[in-house]
Structures are given as C-alpha cells and as structure tokens.
Backbone:
C-alpha cells in the first residue's frame, strides 16, 4: 500500500471548515484513499473513502486531485467534538488486508 | 444494526495471568482484525481472521499471543502470562465479505492494564 504524508497538527476555529491535506504521490491506480479519525480513548471511526471522484457524505467531503497524488478531507462546519487524530490511509481496492495507520494529523477545534 | 462489540472494555491483570479479549463483528461481517495501540503510540495491526481461519498473523508476537474466530461465537484474542508491556488498548475491526472496498469498522476497544 502507498505511503501517505500528513501534517502533524492543525488548528481550526469552531464553526469554520477544517481542511486536512494528505499527500500520496506513489498511489497506484487500484488504490483507494480512506480517512479515519480517532477521538481520544475511542476506537477509530471510519469517515469516508474514494478512488478518483470527489465524495461527500453526512460527515465530510473528500477532494482528490486529478492526478490522485493528494487529497483533502473537508469538515464543513467543525465542532469541538471533531477534535481528534485524523488518518489518511491508501489501500488496494478489494483488499481484505490490514490498515496501516501512520501518525495522522491532530486536529484541534477551538472555541 | 449494532456495531462492533468488544468486551470487556477494561481488564486488569497481574503479571503472569491470562487475558481474554472478545470481539463480536458487525452483523454479516465475516472478517475480523485485531490492532494494538500502546500508550501514546499509533495503531499496529496484529492479526486478520475469517471464520475458523487465520489469514494473516504477521503483526502478532510469536509467543504468548493467540487469536481465534470460531464458527460460532466471538473472536478471541488471548494473551498468556501477561507482562507490563502488554498494557495497551486492543481494538477489533470487522469488514464484510465480498469484493467491494471492504471498509473496516472498529469497536470501542479493550483497555488492558497489567499490574
């Protein structure tokens, strides 16, 4: 699975959009981009995934660049409860293998 | 549809005792994964199982650790003769069968403390 690079930490004001970047320059054509988050002391929570088209669900939007070498997770109206470590993971499509978690981005939403 | 369930949520053991951690996957899911998170560290894969089969145990310590996912009942992660270094949060995830994106969904974890 391709390696990802994320900033160590980010701050965001409550109510504003949080834009979390991820670089995955070695991504292969059959690899999905997944995002998970881990709120302190809880299990990782699935957020969204995509292959090449932008995706949106009730939690977030995922914007993938045309060359697929990077992506951005957007939380449109961040709340204090969105404070968490966010993980960008690249994984082969139809793979049943394990997820490889890096260090992620620590997002702090401030009032 | 209930999510992934793990029990106990907290487990305290003395050195040398055995720890048994249980994971019930989401309904309809036939793939189970165990991950470990040491204090202040990231999640590390341990083992991947399907019903009655271990598919990948490359992340599991060679000694004292074992896992099973029987035909009936939950998946069990068993740690024999626990040591202080086994203190960690253990998370289970499950995914459905088939050839889709196979998203993994995680349980709330079991926090093991070894005294």
Residues:
């Amino acid at each position: 699975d391709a390696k990802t690079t994320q900033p160590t930490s980010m701050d965001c004001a409550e109510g504003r959009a949080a834009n979390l970047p991820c670089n995955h320059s070695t991504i292969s054509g059959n690899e999905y981009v997944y995002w998970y988050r881990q709120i302190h002391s809880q299990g990782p929570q699935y957020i969204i995934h995509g292959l090449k088209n932008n995706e949106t669900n009730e939690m977030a939007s995922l914007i993938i660049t045309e060359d697929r070498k990077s992506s951005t997770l957007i939380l449109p109206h961040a709340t204090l409860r969105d404070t968490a470590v966010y993980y960008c993971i690249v994984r082969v499509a139809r793979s049943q293998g394990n997820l490889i978690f890096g260090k992620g981005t620590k997002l702090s939403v401030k009032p | 549809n209930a999510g992934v369930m793990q029990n106990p949520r907290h487990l305290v053991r003395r050195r040398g005792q055995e720890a048994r951690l249980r994971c019930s996957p989401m309904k309809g899911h036939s793939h189970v994964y165990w991950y470990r998170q040491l204090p202040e560290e990231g999640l590390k894969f341990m083992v991947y199982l399907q019903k009655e089969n271990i598919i990948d145990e490359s992340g599991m310590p060679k000694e004292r650790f074992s896992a099973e996912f029987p035909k009936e009942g939950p998946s069990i992660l068993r740690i024999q003769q626990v040591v202080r270094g086994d203190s960690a949060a253990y998370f289970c995830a499950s995914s459905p069968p088939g050839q889709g994106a196979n998203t993994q969904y995680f349980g709330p974890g079991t926090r093991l403390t070894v005294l």
Remarks:
- Chain B has no helices and eleven strands.
- Chain B touches chain A at residues 4, 31, 33, 35, 42-45, 48, 55-56, 59, 89, 91, 93, 95, 99-109 (CB under 8 Å).
